[in-house]
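Quick entry between incubations.
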Amino acid sequence: MNLNPIRLYYQTLLDALGPSGWWPAQSAFEVAVGAVLTQNTAWRNVEKALAALKAADAFSVSAMLALPIEDLAELIRPSGYYRLKAARLRNLLDFLAREAAGDPSLADDPALSYLSGQDTQELREKLLAVRGVGPETADCILLYALDRPVFVVDAYTARVAVRHGLASEDAGYDELQDIFSRALPEDAAVYNECHALLVRVGHALCKKSRPLCDTCPLGTFLETRP
Ligand code: SF4
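Done. Structure below.
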């Protein structure tokens, strides 16, 4: 079978590392909140912030919107950049409340069912219009919270793609997303797993300096060592 390189890398990583079981969250709402909190920070810090919100009985759209923003910021402090993230989170919560037509019981649905009937591209544009929600955050919400076939690009995706000659150094988010989306079947489960595998390999092996190519499952596909 003659697989395109990205499908081959995907299958190789899946065989070597096994399924990732992403996203590590209990509900679509938790994914959406986590997608904002994880900007520029490690997931373990996000977990602490999520735990603090839950311990304060503040883990819903209406409960967080009812909090003074200083209190919200204090609860999410472990995730870093907490004042900025509190403002961004508030913007996302306002968006969710609007989408639920101002009905608090609907807005607090952890499955975000009120977003389920919406067209993916329209929803993506609406998310991108929320201040503080960039393409990676919007696409994380679409893919991991709402199960939409939207490929998520991050710094690890870019690094692996450039080092393996799949993209140029100056490739932007949209170009990288297009490269991976075209190469893989348009399937949320495949996009979910492929992004997760790239994050795992990027975090553990494809380091910024001194990548561990000798122990990496993708090492055999490298023509030149980075
Ligand atoms: S660590 Fe080396 S082999 Fe693995 S993805 Fe990065 S560049 Fe490729």
